[in-house]
Design goal:
- There is one protein chain.
- The protein has ten helices and 45 strands.
- It has an 18-stranded antiparallel β-sheet that branches.
Length: 818
């Protein structure tokens, strides 16, 4: 016991002596030209092993032994090295570096892998990816401070010189209107950002599929809506360990992934030290002549687990109008490497105003990080982001607590200036929230924007409105109704509902609804809930065959498993065809149907994302995959219904596969079986859309809208986008796409349907297509490109037309990208 006490005393004495023998100097490394902070610059003493690295904001903290009077070596792969006396650094907290004349793209790459020491380091980093990837932790949580701003770049030398000359003119010289505007804009750009927001969020994750993020505090210049909340992963992935890095909606091949040496070149540029560990600084870029979505930048690999310590990466595509650069910094938290800061810089270098261009910056700092905390899966639902503002006093206290540093004068003035300028424009908040939620708040009521208008061939232009209670009236009770008028069919349609939301996160609800409306024949089995419609509206515009329907419906829903939503319903439907049709039913011809149905629907979506905005649940974000839906419907004799006794089964599957080396495959499978006799409107059409000019996902491009009718069918739609593999020019980046669509369907009880000429496709319907997206690209407001392309489809097999030219169909494709 005494020996242990003596050892502890000696150890404590040594540690205290060592601590007193150290001095700490702090400062910041800046770019001498842009005056921007330099991330991941290395500072070391003359021994070459004692040193530190600047963090993303350029700040450093360097421990120096007491009595040290030597030099400090400052280096960075993109800047000229500086050697400065310790005394100089102590008296100058901001040190500037001059950009090197030898930039990344001008470096001579060592051709032979055997001669290149960087390959061995990258290879070990790839081998250790799994153990260093935060996605493989059991769980984690953190508090994130997020700052997003939009501002103008520094003015060009020419503009700066012009402004100085104008300001130097005596007051007696009258300036032109354009000159006055330039001076006002220059003064505004120097003193105020165009937008600024700060948010504090709490993130909790249980890998691999459970996460939720809650807004704790928010301040936005000029606006009040929590929809302006920015979180860490809005602009870049949470870590740099996935095979594909998604930036601006485009997937880039990660240089730290298998097969990288055939695509990327690497150069070991420098070394630094982190305690007793070595940090290798390696530059990377796509190899000459390789055509793929590649990145260029600098990665620092620490020998402690060969983990990424920090990385700077940007697109290697010089044709992008908007460029993006990301930075990530990692620290070791409880024996695990974990991100502690993410930076994103968007440079709209073609969006120029008075010699400046627009830039956007996003910064996220993670605090109170916990690795593998005991989180409960039962506390997670399908609401992944909760945006509810706290009270004003609590909001301010949380912001003050988690801010990295106090706002500078320009940031503080941005809040004051924009809050004043936007005070009378509070309606903009409502408009933006309305776009996201598809509802316009009106106190305790809200206007359903999806009910305002629509178009199809049968109704022509339909104008209407829907008004329902909002969450300000009640968070658990919603009721209201809608009405619409079709100017071609000259008919009113209307309906209403009352819905009890018992638990939004569990999707637990009870709903009663009524409607007197129309529905397209063959579409009553389609379930679009929780899925993005995409370009299907191009087909809906062409629809012309509808049934009138009046129905009463009761429905209860619940999320029975983490990714499985279920609903049970019973409905009474009165149906009247709008076309010449009769059904031979019970030996009588009739065109008026009274049917009662009951059914079950199951929907599986992996990691589906919903947003809770002021208590309102909204589908938000990208489409998740895979998606499976299954439903079974039984016609029953209840509520004075006719004695229909059919059963209908429906199943769909949708999936997307993103390939490691670029390209993606989309698969959509749909099938159904109606067992028994049912009116024509309840049968299946063949999913055709040969009258549209635009390509429509999940439909046969060479098949007519109502060319085929079936009671049981199965169809598969497959396409593969190879990506940009042909040409890489500013105004042309064609992506090769192949299509293969097939289906088979059979019609039973054909003779019972009178007035329509019906046929099935029981011999199999086949079409193939070849497309090129982005053949031509057009500049869109100097921020992005509209990409125009096309595809040609050919119909062949048992149902091909006699004339070969009649089997060819052309489609236009349009997409927006950077």
């Amino acid at each position: 016991m005494r020996l242990r006490l003596v050892c502890l005393t000696i150890t404590g004495t040594i540690l205290c002596s060592w601590a007193h023998a150290q001095i700490t100097i702090r400062g910041r490394i800046m770019d001498s030209v842009t005056l921007q902070p330099i991330a991941f610059a290395n500072l070391s003493l003359e021994d070459g092993r004692t040193g530190t690295t600047t963090e993303i904001e350029g700040n450093f903290s360097l421990s120096v032994p007491s009595g040290y009077t030597g030099n400090i070596y400052i280096s960075h792969v993109s800047y000229q090295k500086r050697i400065l006396p310790l005394a100089y650094i102590q008296s100058h907290p901001e040190i500037s570096l001059l950009p090197s004349s030898t930039q990344l793209l001008e470096v001579d790459i060592v051709a032979s892998r055997l001669e290149n020491p960087a390959f061995g380091i990258i290879r070990k980093a790839i081998e250790h990816k799994r153990e260093n990837d935060p996605a493989n932790l059991k769980s984690y949580e953190y508090i994130s401070y997020n700052k997003f701003l939009i501002t103008m770049s520094e003015s060009s030398k020419k503009t700066d010189s012009l402004v100085q000359n104008l300001r130097a003119r005596p007051d007696s010289v009258k300036l032109k209107k354009g000159q006055k505007t330039l001076l006002k804009f220059d003064s505004l750009a120097n003193t105020t950002h165009f937008f600024l927001s700060e948010s504090i969020t709490e993130k909790q994750v249980i890998n691999p599929d459970k996460e939720k993020e809650k807004l704790l505090a928010l301040q936005v210049s000029g606006y009040k809506s929590p929809i302006f909340t920015n979180v860490a992963t809005d602009y870049q992935p949470f870590s740099f360990y996935k095979d594909n890095i998604s930036l601006l909606g485009k997937d880039f091949i990660n240089p730290i992934s298998r097969g990288t040496f055939s695509r990327y070149d690497f150069v070991l540029s420098d070394t630094s030290y982190l305690g007793s560990d070595t940090v290798y600084i390696i530059r990377f870029r796509p190899r000459e002549g390789k055509l793929f979505n590649g990145l260029q930048g600098v990665v620092s690999i620490c020998t402690d687990g060969f983990a990424i310590k920090n990385i700077i990466a940007s697109s290697a595509d010089s044709s992008m109008i908007t460029t993006i650069r990301i930075q990530q910094n990692y620290d070791k938290i409880n024996s695990h490497w974990f991100p502690v800061q993410l930076n994103t810089d968007l440079d709209f270098h073609e969006y120029k105003v008075f010699g400046r261009h627009l830039i956007a910056q996003h910064r996220s700092f993670f605090k109170e990080i916990k690795i593998n905390p005991p989180l409960k899966r039962s506390s997670f639902g399908d609401i992944t982001t909760e945006l509810t503002l706290p009270k004003a006093e609590e909001n301010k206290a949380i912001l003050d607590r988690y801010r990295n540093k106090q706002l500078d004068k320009k940031e503080a003035r941005t809040y004051v200036f924009l809050d004043s300028a936007m005070r009378k424009r509070g309606w903009i908040d409502k408009v933006i929230e309305a776009i996201v939620t598809q509802t316009l708040p009106m106190g305790i009521l809200e206007l359903d924007l999806t009910r305002i208008s629509r178009f199809n061939v049968y109704e022509g232009f339909r104008l209407g409105a829907g008004v329902y209670t909002s969450t300000r009236f009640s968070k658990w009770l919603r009721f209201g109704g809608y009405a619409g008028y079709g100017f071609r069919d000259e008919q009113w349609k209307y309906g209403g509902e009352i819905k009890f939301n018992f638990n939004l996160n569990k999707d637990f609800f009870l709903r009663f609804s009524y409607a007197k409306d129309i529905y397209e024949t063959g579409s009553s089995h389609i379930n679009r809930e929780g899925q993005l419609i995409g370009n299907e509206s191009f087909r809906l515009w062409r629809a012309f065959q509808f049934d009138r329907i009046e129905f009463y419906k009761g429905e209860v829903g619940y999320r029975i498993l983490p990714d499985v939503h279920a609903s049970l319903f019973v409905s009474r439907n009165e149906i009247q065809p709008t076309y010449n049709y009769q059904l031979l039913f019970n030996n009588e011809l009739t065109n008026h149907f009274l049917i009662t149905e009951t059914g079950l629907t199951l929907r599986y979506v992996h990691r589906e994302n919903y947003l809770s905005l002021r208590g309102k649940k909204t589908f938000f974000g990208q489409q998740s995959f895979p998606v499976f839906t299954f439903s079974v419907v039984q016609a029953i004799q209840a509520f004075d219904a006719q004695d229909f006794n059919y059963t209908r089964f429906d199943f769909t599957a949708k999936h997307q596969i993103k390939h490691r080396y670029g390209g993606k495959t989309n698969l959509f499978f749909t099938s159904g079986w109606l067992n028994g006799l049912a009116p024509y409107g309840k049968l299946y059409n063949g999913r055709g859309i040969n009258t549209a000019y635009m390509y429509v996902d999940g439909y046969f491009q060479t098949m007519g809208l109502y060319e085929f009718t079936t009671t049981k069918y199965a169809s598969v739609f497959l396409n593969h986008n190879f990506g940009n593999v042909l040409l890489n020019k500013k105004l042309s980046k064609p992506e090769l796409v192949i299509y293969q669509n097939m289906g088979i369907g059979q019609l039973e009880n054909k003779d019972a349907h009178i007035g329509l000429s019906l046929q099935d496709f029981n011999k199999g319907f086949i079409e193939s297509g070849l497309g090129l997206n982005n053949i031509l690209r057009a500049n869109y407001v100097n921020v992005a490109y509209w990409g125009f392309g096309g595809a040609v489809f050919y119909r062949y097999g048992p149902y091909q037309f006699a004339q070969p030219s009649d089997n060819l169909f052309w489609r236009l494709t349009v997409q927006l990208g950077f």
